[in-house]
Structures are given as structure tokens and as C-alpha cells.
Amino acid sequence: MYQTENLQDVIKTGKTLRSPRLLLPRVSSTVLFLGLTSFFTDISSEMVSTILPLYLVFGLGLNPLQFGVVDGLYQGAAALVKVAGGLVADRWRRHKEVAVAGYGLSAFCKLGFLLVGGVWAAIAALVLIDRTGKGIRTAPRDAMISLSTPREELGTAFGVHRALDTAGAMIGPLVAFGLLALLPGAFDSVFVVSFCVALIGLGVLTLFVENRPAARPAAASARPVSLGAAVGLLRAPRFGVLVAIGAALGLMTMSDGFLYLGLQRRLDFNSEFLPLLYVATALVYMVLAVPMGRLADRIGRGRVFIGGYVVLLLVYTSLLLPTLGRVELLGYIALFGVYYAATDGVLMALASAVLPAELRTSGLALLTTATGLARLFASVLFGLLWTRWDVETAVQCFIAGLIVAIAIAVVALIRTENSVNHEQAAAS
Amino acid sequence: MSKQPHPDVSLGRSAGPPPGAGIGLVGDCPPAATTRTRRPLPRGLIFTALTVICLLIAGGSIARAGLRQRAMGLTAASPPPVAATAGDTEGVAALRARPHLIFRSTARDDTFGKIALAPLDAPEGPRGVTALRCDRVYAAADRGLCLTAKRGVGAKYSAQVLDAALQPGAAEALGGIGIPSRTRVSPDGRYAAITVFVSGHSYAAGTFSTHTTLIDTASGAPIAELEEFAVWRSGARFQAPDFNFWGVTFARDSNRFYATLGTDGKHYLVEGDIAARRLRVVHEGVECPSLSPDGTRVAFKKQVGAEGRADWRIHVLDLATLAETPLSGETRNVDDQIEWLDDGHVLYALPDDADPTTSGGVTNVWVLPADGGRQPRLFLPQAASPVVVR
To answer: Among A61, A85, A426, B84, which has the highest number of CB atoms less than 10 A from its own CB?
Structure first.
């Protein structure tokens, strides 16, 4: 009864589906189904990434140390693929097809691990193809989320998606370890189950997610989709500012690995405790993704986004404190989850609001590429500072840099917000 | 969820098809009129079918693995690595009394994963099998070390000191995060070294590092992580946050040892001094060293081929002249820490050719003359982690 009424309501108004769930409020079915797609895909991919080292060493008798070497080289290629995927999705208005290609590629890699056996180069290639799939699908997926959501609810929509995504990432390792506990050494079963879960995610995407970009503005014909047009987005003041802010903040963000390592050295806790920190961070992120998104929609996405980085600043100071107790550590880990919830989806919402619909995917791809490369550079920089001086110096440099980046971001965002307000005032 | 109709939820400003068109099939929606008359298979039904098929495949795979493991006597209910009461205790004691080999059985029977012994002069003869399960094993003097992955509870390991009878000794097992990789015991039995792999989490996916720990076999407690030692190169301190150490091999005096230091994509041979807690870079391009019984040479695996398609080949380094000799008779990819059979021959494990893929774990131990291009010979079938005890 309730659903029928709801359906009528939706058809009548063409508005969003009202979900009765507390954590999944007022989002379009597209967002919900994309969230479920990510949920299943993350279960699948986390199952494999959790057991891959064990599989390499015990299943195949290989040495996993070399995977890190490929990583840096690969980042550049991944950036190109990401932007190319964005352009294809925009040009032919085929967001879903590009996303399906990305999710499909990753799904079939799971099966590939079974087929290639112990050929090291093939395993490395599969890992790269898997991540290429991830690179391809992210921007069209986020574009579809934003294109099926009214502008004023973008933060909530991305929050819902990221909550489901993170939930999958937390469940995946549990499933994998559960299977290995039941059947020691049965890595093939883990790959098959992971493949099946990925197929279900792919099924949700192909069967239930709508394929039409919502708006085809009149200006579309005046702005053909090309690499030039996509790069031209960077010159558009509002989006260009966001990319610059995202990159500047990313440049002063140390990798999670360094942070956890730093905390571990500080506290000298048993390394068995370390995975719990990841879980605690993910848990806080999952729980707060929706509330933070809603808050962003209500009080301003820029504010929540900047607030997230102020929280990150607080987390960094914990690495300099003379003493750090267990309780404080958990507090800081919770704050780290808050930072994720306040920044990850919110940045996509910020960008979606200023990107034209016809170039939405390319724009989001450019943004994530810029922030990704900035973070990669930050990792190298942090490593260099650590080598040349010590951890404390590196942390101090990053804290100082982050303060500067936040200050720049605040000024830039205030100016952007003003110009948006002017425009909206002029429009109404 | 799949039973609920999924309305067209495009925005008000959308110029999309009229309401009702949302119940189309995969991908592009057919025109609204066709949809109403022809009624394609509902998406919910297709999805249910897909889910059922996936569940069947997944269930079938799990069932197959379960049956396979029951056949191998390897189930979750099988006993953890504890005392060798069920093993061939007397046979083991008799074998221990003369020169012998200790190894991990990889035979596809109920000895899989258990520690076994064979006489050195008749390696293919009858084996003595203990009830002890280890993923890596080593022994010297009257001590041994059993390195085990605690499966099913995450990537944790257990390092258990063994006594003269290869039984878990009084010392408490050391545990931590990581996947067992290498272990060695010093010739006098006083120290043991273990190397484990530690993997990055999804947020830092794809990165692996190693932890190498020195253990006092009397207490089973760690003495040091190699990362805590001061490293010197050409008379100057050498430091970087990406230092990784692996593959310890002890010298005869048991205080000195050699190991690999990996940093910035390079692999260095380092010579260590436990008492002085320092390491000195000796040579470059050396992984997983193994010191010859006479202490003059190091057998190691050398990375050949392009980055990303790397293979390892066995080489021998003369420590006095730093001259390298490739053991070119072995053309396969050897990713193991070499064990010296005597001053003229090396032993190493390779995956069984007949069983190259998943769920196998069957390996054979090969022997190779340590002086150049001669061919390898099968030494000990269905075995891994060989240890020579004289």
C-alpha cells in the first residue's frame, strides 16, 4: 500500500523515491542501485585483495614484494584511462555502458586468477586490469549519481552511495576469512565466490540502473564533447577552483599507511591491533557518510568539506603529542573516519553542482585524477622528508602545508560561493 | 527489493520518456508503447535467476573444495600444530641420530603440510613423519623453528621454537601480523630469524613489506627487528623509510649473519652483527642469501628480466672476490631461499609441473652443483623447506 502510494507520488511528480530506511533517506533509485552495485563489487574486490598475498605465498609459492614496484608506474596510465572513459561516457551519453565495462572488467579478473595459475606476470597484469576497471567505472558512476539527483540533495546522494560502498568493503574481508576458516587453503573457492558476488553487482547495475542522463541542456549543441572541452572545464572558474583546491589539499594529505604506521610507532602497540584501526575508520566513515552528506546539503558543502580537513589537521597533531593513550588513539581514529565522511563524497557533490551535465563524467574524472596524482606526490614527498630528516619533521611540514592549503581553500570557496549566489540571484 | 517496481526517477527537468517507460529491459529503454504491449521479462525475474545461478556456482565451488579437502584430510577440524604424539616418534628419533633432511611434506595425502625427515644418504627412501604442521621449518643444533600461518583468522603467524625431538618446546610461541616467508636457525641453535610479509590494506592496496625478526630460542621472545639495526654503506649511515629486510642466513659463529635489504627498488646483501646491532652493505643485486657451510660463498636468487616480468635465477657470490657465478643449468624461476647440501651443491624447492595452478602447493626439492652450468636433478619429491642436518 505504502509502496503504491509512493510510486504514484514518484510518477506524478517525477521526484525522488522516498525510502523508509533511516540510513538511506530520500535518494533516487539510481543512487540506491548504484550504491548496491558498489556494495556487491566492494565485497567481491575486498575478498580478493585481502587474500591475494596469502594466495601468492601459500597457493603459488610466489614472492609478493614486487607488486609495489609496478604501482607508481601504473598511476599515470590509470589517469589516462580514467579521463578517456569519462570522455567516451560524455560524448556518446553512455554512462552506464562505460560503467558496465569497468565493473565487468573487474568481475572477470576474479575468474582470471583461477585461470592463470602461478604465472607471475599474468597475475600482475590481472591486478592492473582490475584497477583499470576501477578507474574506468568511478567517474561515470559518480556522474550517474549526480545526474539522477536534484542539485540540493547531491551531498545526501553521495553519502548514501559511499555508505553502501564502505559497508561492502568491510564485509568482503570477513567473507574471505570466513571461507578460508571453513576450508583452509581453498583459494579457488574464494575467487569463485568473489566472481559470483561481482556478477550480482553487475546484474544490479545492468538491470536496475537507468541509463539516461537527466538533463540535455539547450547549450549542449554549443559545447561538443572533446578532450579540449574537458580540459577547458579547468578554465571555468568554479570547477577550476575546485580542482585546484582538491589538488592542493591532496598534496598535503599523507597516505593512510603512513598515518597508521606513525600511530603504531607512537603507541608501540602490537601489530595485530593495526587492522582494527582500518576497520574502526571504515565503520565511522560508513555510519557518518549519510549524516555528513545531509549536513553538507543543509549548511553548505564547502563548509563540511573544509571542516573535514580541519578534523584531519587534528588527527595529524596526534602524531606529535608527547603521549598518546589507547582511548585517545580510538578518538583520533574516529576523527579520521569523520574526515573521510566529510570530504570524499562531499567533494564529488561540490564538483557535480558546478559541472555541466554534458561534461559531468569527464569533469569528475579530471578531478579525481588531479587529487589522485596529488596524493601520490604527497606520499613521495612524505617519504623524502622522512628520509632526509625524521617522522616528526615530515608531520610538521604536512601540518603547516595543510594549514596553508585549508586557508587557500576557504578563501577560494567563499569567492566561488559568492559568485554562485550572484548567479542564482540573477537567475531568479 | 527486487520485487518492487522501479519507477522512472529522472528529474522533473528531464526530457526523458513518459512515466511507465522505466520498466524496460537492460540498457536502452525501448519506446514506451512497445514496452506496454510486449511486456519483456521483468527485471526482477532476471535478477532472481542470476542470483540463483550465482549462488549455485558459489555453493558448488565451496562443496567441491570441501570434498577435496576431506580427501586430503585437511579440514578446519584438523589439529593445529601441536605435539607430535600421533607422529612416528620412534622413527623420527632414529632418523635424528644420523645425518638427515628435515622438510615440509607436500605429498597429496594425509602427510601434506606436516614436517617429515629422511636420511641424507637416501632422501627418496622411507620418511619419518611428525604430527607437526609448519609452513616453513628450519633446525640446527638441538633447536628448530616452526613458522605457521594462522589460517582463517587473518594474516597472522605463529613462530614456535622446537626442541631436539622437533616437538614444540617450553618457549611460548611468538605471534603477530604477517604471512610466513623464511626462517633460519643459527648453527649453535641460540638464535632464529623469521621473515613475514605484511600487506597494505585496500586504501594502500598493492604494497607489501617484510618484517624480519630475530628470536632468542631459549625464551621464544624477539631480540630485535632488523629495521632497528643501524645500516652502514661505504662507511656512512644509510637510512630510508622504505627499508625492507628478508632472508637471514647465519654464519658459523652464530653472531654474524647475512640478509637482504630492499630499498628504492634495489636489493642489497647486508652483513649483520647481532651483538653490535648493526648491518653493513656488502653487495648489490642479491636476494635471499644462503651462506655455504664453509662460509666463503653465498647462494642467492637474482632478479632477471624486465621490471614487472621478473624471474629469479640462482647465482653464487664469492664473498672474498665478490665475483658472481650464475648456476645457468637451472632455467626455471626459483623463488626460494637456497639450502646448501654440502660445499658443492645447493637445494631448493620448485612447484610441481603437473600441478601449476590453484590449491596445489605440491613442490619438489631439486639439487644443483654450485659451480656453473650443470643440470639440476630431482632430489626429494613432494617436499618443501628443506633443511640439511649433519
So the answer is: A85
What's the CATH number where B121 sits?
Answer: 2.120.10.30
- Phi, psi (degrees; rounded to nearest 5) at B212: -115, 125
Q: In sequence order, what DSSP letters do the residues of A148-194 get, joined into one string? A: TS-GGGHHHHHHHHHHHHHHHHHHHHHHHHHHHHHSTT-HHHHHHHH
- Give the pairing of strands B287-291 and B278-284: unpaired
Q: B123 pLDDT exceeds 80?
A: yes
CATH architecture for the domain at A22-212: Up-down Bundle (1.20)
Q: What is the mean pLDDT of chain B?
A: 80
Report the C-alpha gap between A72 and A74 in whole angstroms.
5
Domain coverage including residue B193: 84-389
pLDDT value at residue B266: 85
Q: Which residues numbered 87-146 in A keep a CB inside 8 Å of some CB on B?
A: 96-97, 114, 117-118, 120-121, 124, 127, 131
Q: Which of A194-208, A297-311, B82-96 has the least mean pLDDT?
A: B82-96
Cα B171 off chain centre by: 24
A276 touches chain B (CB under 8 A): no
- pLDDT for B79 equals 36
pLDDT of residue A299: 92
The residue to which cell 573535514 is assigned? A308
Contact residues, A window 15-54, toward B, CB-based 8 Å cutoff: 15-17, 28-30, 33, 36, 46, 49-50, 52-54
Cβ of residue B72 closer than 8 Å to a chain A Cβ = no
Dihedral class, residue B322 (left if φ above 0, else alpha if ψ from -120 to 50, else beta): left
Give the Cβ contact number of residue A269 at 10 Å: 16
**Which of A251, A244, A159, A231 is CA-nearest to residue A415?**
A244
Name every residue whose Cβ is closer than 8 Å to that of residue B77 and which is 6 or more positions away in sequence. none
Strands B377-380 and B363-369, bridge-based pairing: antiparallel
Q: What ipTM score was computed for the predicted complex, to two decimals?
A: 0.76
- Cβ–Cβ below 8 Å for B203 and A256: yes
Backbone angle region of B195, left / alpha / beta, with phi > 0 → left and psi within -120 to 50 → alpha: beta
